[in-house]
Task: structure prediction
Amino acid sequence: MAIKDDEGTLNSMAIGEAQLVLAEKRTSLAVMRTGIAVLALPISVMSVLIATSRYYDVLKVIYLLIPLAIVNVVLMILGGYLVIRSIFRMRHHDRLIRDIKAKHGVIGKYID
Result:
């Protein structure tokens, strides 16, 4: 009877570990989604400026365009950082899941 209790405890620990790693992976996916949205913002602002460029003279509004360009570059760097960081984190989570599957064969058939 004691062996079943130990085996059940190990199985529940393995499932708990897998759930924790999968929750962290979902968080990384949310960070990636945020990074993609941050990357899309400067692209949309620049497309609006290009589409309406015939209604203004660039030299007359250069004092507005330079800070806007700086903010766009900062947003692109931030978005790229978030996406790249989340990719590395997800690869780390995939390795952890692979280790859990190898260590605990019971849950290996349920996780791809």
